[in-house]
Design a protein that fits this description.
The complex is a heterodimer of chains A (about 110) and B (about 725). Chain A is mainly alpha-helical and about 110 residues long. Chain A is about 80% helix and about 0% strand. The relative contact order of chain A is 0.03. Chain B has five domains: about 45 residues; about 140 residues, Alpha-Beta Complex (Penicillin-binding protein 2a (Domain 2)); about 350 residues, Beta-lactamase, CATH 3.40.710.10; about 60 residues, no CATH class; about 90 residues, Trypsin Inhibitor V, Chain A. Chain B contains 23 helices and 30 strands. The longest helix of chain B is centred in the N-terminal third of the chain and has 32 residues. The interface between A and B is large, with 34 and 53 residues.
């Protein structure tokens, strides 16, 4: 009788290890699927990011901006005589910075 | 008895079980031991994919990190032919989605290979459509595709790639090894439903990013102005190069004809893909007189005030009579350059002597590649001194018998501009992978600048080049607000039919720099065979002016000569009356679209002018305007900023605009009398709507203009363009 129990116990342990192995195997496959899904998601996000960067680059094409400025907005180039340089008054930057700080505090 | 019968039954069952087990294990052993390789192969074919990931090319940026070329992932469709049962049906379906002939698709599906591409680099729509078909044996795979978001901007510099992302031109080709990452293979497993899992992580070994010295805005300005000039002159081709003369950085390299690298292939005509700035060889003509004079000044054999007899327009060199383009008499050296006298240049070169002249030509980099980091550079054409004929010194001194590239010429002119140092022109600022700047190798290796002429010689020549712009053949290159210097060139081309110089086919060019004392840019403009006006001073110099006047403010270079607004306007008005065609050259193309300017009266001749002008004389413009006129200030309320600006300019007032939207307040008030030139402050904001009650509720008494109507200027412009 003792031998029978011993055999059953041994069989149980072996079966448990076997079941554990099976569980781990399938868990591993399942995690692989999850990993692949996460990887795909990351790649998609990365691809979207790249696409958006490409779109930004295309939208900032100087030719496109020039066309919009001239044709849609009716802008023209400034003549040299229309460009004037202003020398900032000494201390003007400090005054501006103080004003900004006051406004910010408010 | 019964026990023995049961025993027999048990034995039978055990025997059957043993036989069954033996059969099973026997078969298992057979499969494992003898058919192992065969079934392993089948399983791998069914469950595993080894996918080669095409490398992701690094991006190419301009100097301000604006992307000029970048790669993003797109889908490509592939098939496993063995998995497709009805290939004809699959081909029909795919043909409908992809828009390619069914026969072609079917031929691809009939391949004996395990893997065939159906169509690569699909649009997102096509990729989604293929996925929606859900065909067994047809899959999509992400690949990188090269995009050039600025289309044809700097296309000759960037180059292009083939379908396998291999660089075929420009920087893409020159730095292909660095930009192109390493391709990698990854293993993927699939379950019974062909769901992929267990893909190995792709190694992050992308290509290196390249940062150029180009500035996309300067590049655009150069390309736009070149295209405008080509359109106007109907030239066969053209080149503009903008360089920082203080370090050899190329800020813009524009060529025409051009191409869109997004749609380029090996089938794109070579003349469209040719980067003329580095590859095109041409006789520089009169621009080469700069080298002649640089050598002469550096050797101290003459000075700007020495007078030469230009023989009334003709000289014999080794028995050959060479005619000048005009019958010049006595000219100073300064005038020889300003008026571009061939006879004068020949006499100076003869005094210099061929060996010394050759040494200087060679020192300025002619006849050898500049070493620019762009592919396909021509070394130029400079015959060894031993091969010079007796007439060579005469021909070369005026820019014939020598072949140069635009890049060689602008490098030499930059050396004159910066005080005599010849820098190696370069366009690659750095190559970086991640945050690491890669060491320079090959063409990217920087070289020390070398002195080709003394600073004093360069300074003398700069002063003479300024004379070209102020009084000589290059007056159309005179800038409003900055000093400039340069030299015109109108070199005859060899007629391939006759083998002689063509009287009608010329290379019109202008090369110069600005401002003179501290040059920020050197610009070369070259137009191949313009029709009609074809002298460099007439067609290329205005392009220099247009580009310089846009680039200098962009680079925040302060004007070094006062800009007289009325002087510009007077010049413009006088010019407009004289010659509408010349006006386009003299002024920005949109200048003529500005509203009416206040009247101003010019009391002397125009500064633009012409070769029969005495270069030694100084032109003055005395402009008078009636400053005392009283003006009644109009009511600006409700007007847009543009309207207010136009009205003020028309009346000769100086507007100060504060805020945005529509004009709400003004100082002085409407109706006040002020002098011309007075300052008017106009406050902008959202005006309060006046609401009046009606039977249906409230309605605005005066509708607010919330959408900007195209202004008169805009309308005129559109009409002009069409």
């Amino acid at each position: 009788m003792r031998n029978l129990y011993r055999t059953v116990a041994l069989g149980g342990i072996i079966a448990a290890f076997f079941l554990l192995y099976i569980y781990q195997h399938f868990k591993c496959i399942d995690l692989s699927f999850q990993l692949e899904a996460a990887r795909t998601e990351r790649l998609e996000a990365s691809a979207l990011n790249s696409s958006l960067r490409l779109e930004i680059a295309g939208l900032s094409n100087p030719k496109r901006i020039d066309m919009i400025a001239r044709r849609q907005l009716g802008l023209t180039e400034t003549l040299p005589s229309q460009v004037r340089e202003y020398q900032p008054v000494a201390g003007a930057e400090v005054a501006d910075a103080q004003l900004i700080r006051v406004n910010h505090d408010q | 008895m019964q026990q023995s019968r049961a025993h027999v039954r048990l034995l039978i069952v055990a025997g059957v079980a043993l036989l069954w087990a033996t059969a099973v294990f026997g078969r298992l052993g057979y499969l494992q031991l003898y058919r192992h390789g065969d079934y392993l192969l089948r399983a791998q074919r069914q469950q595993q994919r080894i996918i080669e990931i095409s490398p992701k090319r690094g991006a190419i940026y301009d100097r301000n990190m604006h992307a000029l070329a970048m790669s993003i992932k797109v889908d490509s469709a592939f098939a496993i032919p063995n998995e497709i049962k009805d290939k004809a049906l699959a081909a029909q379906l795919l043909s409908g989605v992809l828009g390619i002939p069914a026969d072609l698709v079917e031929s691809r599906l009939d391949s004996s290979q395990n893997f065939v591409w159906i169509e690569r680099k699909l649009t997102p729509e096509k990729s989604e459509a293929i996925t929606a078909l859900n065909l067994k044996g047809v899959y999509t795979q992400a690949e990188n595709k090269r995009f050039y978001p600025k289309a044809d901007l700097a296309s000759h510099v960037l180059g292009f790639v083939d379908v396998d992302e291999k660089g075929l031109g420009g920087i893409e080709y020159a730095l292909d090894n660095q930009i192109r990452g390493k391709s990698e293979k990854i293993g993927m497993m699939a379950d019974a439903h062909q769901k992929w899992f267990d893909g190995a992580e792709a190694r992050r070994d992308h290509g290196a990013n390249v940062v150029l010295t180009l500035d996309e805005k300067i590049q655009y300005i150069a390309e736009r102005e070149l295209a405008t000039a080509i359109n106007k002159t109907h030239a066969l081709a053209g080149t503009v190069v903008v360089m920082n003369p203080n370090n050899g950085e190329l800020l813009a390299v524009a060529n025409w004809p051009t191409f869109d690298p997004n749609a380029a292939s090996a089938g794109t005509p070579a003349e469209f893909r040719m980067n003329r700035a580095v590859s095109a060889l041409y006789e520089p003509g009169s621009t080469f007189k700069l080298i002649t004079l640089a050598a002469a000044f550096d050797q101290g054999i003459t000075n700007p005030d020495e007078v030469f007899d230009c023989e009334n327009g003709a000289i014999y060199v080794a028995g050959h009579k060479i005619h000048d383009h005009k019958r010049f008499g006595l000219l100073t050296v300064a005038d020889i350059l300003a008026l571009s006298s061939d006879v004068g240049a020949i006499k100076i070169a003869e005094r210099l002597g061929a060996p010394k002249f050759y040494d200087y030509i060679h020192a300025f980099g002619f006849g050898t590649p500049t070493g620019v980091d762009l592919p396909g550079e021509s070394r130029g054409l400079l015959r060894p001194l031993a091969n010079w004929s007796p007439i060579s010194i005469g021909a070369i001194s005026m820019g014939q018998e020598v072949g140069v590239t635009p890049l060689q010429l602008i490098s030499a002119v930059s050396a004159i501009a910066n005080g005599g140092m010849l820098y190696k022109p370069h366009i690659v600022a750095e190559v970086r992978r991640g945050d690491t700047v890669l060491p320079r190798e090959g063409l990217l290796v920087a070289s020390e600048p070398r002195r080709v002429i003394q600073p004093e010689s360069a300074a003398t020549l700069r002063r003479l080049m300024e004379g070209v712009v102020l009084n000589g053949t290059g007056t159309r290159a005179r800038l409003d607000g900055w000093t400039s210097a340069g030299k015109t060139g109108s070199a005859q081309k060899i007629d391939p039919n006759s083998g002689r110089y063509s009287p009608t086919q010329l290379i019109a060019s202008f090369t110069g720099f600005a401002p003179i004392n501290n040059p920020a840019v050197a610009i070369l403009v070259s137009l191949d065979s313009p029709i009609g006006l074809h002298e460099g001073g007439m067609v290329a110099a205005p392009v220099f002016k247009r580009i310089a006047e846009q680039v200098l403010p962009y680079l925040e270079v302060s004007p070094d000569v006062p800009v007289n607004e009325r002087l510009v306007q007077a010049a413009y008005k006088k010019q407009a009356q004289n010659d509408a065609e010349n006006l386009e050259d003299f002024t920005p193309s949109d200048f003529s679209l500005l509203p009416e300017q206040p009247e101003a009266v010019s009391s002397s001749v125009e500064p633009h002018s012409t070769s029969n002008l005495n270069p030694s004389s100084h032109l003055t413009l005395a402009v008078t305007a009636d400053e005392d006129t009283e003006i009644s200030i109009p009511d600006f309320s409700g007007k847009t900023m543009r309207d207010v600006t136009e009205m003020c300019l028309r009346l000769g007032l100086d507007p100060v605009l504060v805020g945005t939207n529509l004009a709400t307040e003004q100082t002085p008030a409407a109706g006040s009398q002020v002098r011309r030139g007075s300052r008017i402050t106009v406050q902008f904001g959202i005006p309060a709507m006046k609401l009046t009650a009606t039977g249906n509720g409230f309605k605005s008494a005066k509708p607010l203009r919330v959408t900007q109507q195209p202004s008169k200027v805009a309308k005129k412009h559109v009409r002009h363009r069409h």
